[in-house]
Amino acid sequence: MKIRQRLALRFMIVSALVTGAILIFIYLFTRGFVHADFVDRLTQQSSLEVLHYATPQVRDVMPAGSFNLVNPSVSIYTRDGKKLYGRGEYSIPPTWLTFLQQNDVFNAERGEYTTAGRKHEVNDVLYFVFVSAKDLPGERELTFLLKATITGWIISLILSYLSGVYFSGKALQPVTRVVAEVNQVTEDNLSHRLEPDRKDSAVDEIDELILTFNALLGRIERAFINQRRFVQNASHELKTPLTAIMAEVELALTRERPPEEYQRTLHVVLQETERLATITQGLLTLARLEEGPMKTEMNSLDVSELVDRTLAAFSLHHPERTVIREGKLGQSPLQGNFHLLQTALLNILDNAYKYSSDKISVILSSTDRDVTIVIQDYGIGIPPDDLQRIRVPLFRASNAWSIPGAGLGLSLVDRIVSVHRGSFHITSEEGKGTRCTMRLPLAS
């Protein structure tokens, strides 16, 4: 069942309950009023009957059928229970007379008859009068009212369902339009965006849904573009060393060569193989980090020790490069993965080593909530047009193609910092250097 029919059905059920309750209340209220009016007419008839019996001259002034009763039965008794007058076939039980003798008012219903018993004093004589009758006009009115009520209730159900279908269809027209537009979005048409209905100044729920869906489409489109670019760059980066290896091996196999040339070929193959291993390892690390921090082992570690061991490892491989450390951290406990954070710092230091020939500055600072590690180099920098894309895997700046690299370093750093719920910022000026800032939250 579609939403339109469900809404119409629910609207019909609510309408049925509300109108049914109102109609039942009206019927019961009307029935009570009819019954009370009939008892009142029986009471008035009892007054008239006792006057007719005690003072016959009243008959000429007020006829017996003055209160719209159909063949009423009348019984008149004295104080001691003697029956003075009776008319009709309806008999009064002795217990009713006893009750009226002890009380001022008597009302009873038995079968189709309603009986009203009253005390009347005429010419200093006390009479006990009972008037019984069928309320035929009232029953007809109530029967007609009941049929009209049921018929009206059924008609109201039909009308409420039809109106529910109509108005729910009107209300869901924007949804139908959105569905039709969404069907136009394909993998080759991710740039398509839904148009909000801005006929009114206020933005309704459908417009909010459209804006949210457009934002989702934007994220999906960017993800597709990044994935496509990643595949293209990965193919290029993997193809280059493979092509070099194949060319060197094929060249070496064309004819007999001296050992020196074979050594040169093996040296080139080793370099390209190391490059392939670096790219593959970087891609595997990125894939593992995409699983999120829940898949990454986190331990309590000291940031000062992390920085000291990382700088020692870097100096071991590049003893000729000067690294200036500034600032102190003291005891800065951090919840993280030592190997991943060391990999991030080494990637930044390696970039600073490759793209500059001057000193490298490492500036440390901390607050009660986080620790900041800044690595500054004074090399070629990053062009402004490339700065926004420098974190994309396998992307390299336009001025760095002549320098060996895979374009994975900063992508790994960005993802590692994100896994540790930190922030990573890059500022650079072409020809003057690059400044990388890592800010990591401390363990609470």
Task: Characterize the structure shown.
This protein has 444 residues and is of the alpha+beta class. It folds into three domains: 3-159, Beta-Lactamase, CATH 3.30.450.20; 205-287, Signal transduction histidine kinase, dimerisation/phosphotransfer (DHp) domain (Helix Hairpins), CATH 1.10.287.130; 292-441, Heat Shock Protein 90 (2-Layer Sandwich). It is 54% helix and 18% strand. It is built from eleven helices and twelve strands. The chain has helices at 3-54, 58-61, 94-102, 136-171, 173-182, 205-253, 259-289, 303-317, 338-354, 384-387, 409-419, and strands spanning 70-77, 83-87, 105-110, 113-122, 125-134, 299-302, 323-326, 333-336, 360-366, 370-376, 423-429, 433-441. α1 runs antiparallel to α4 (136-171). The longest helix is centred in the first third of the chain and has 52 residues, at 3-54. The radius of gyration is 50 Å and the shape is rod-shaped. 22% of the residues are buried.
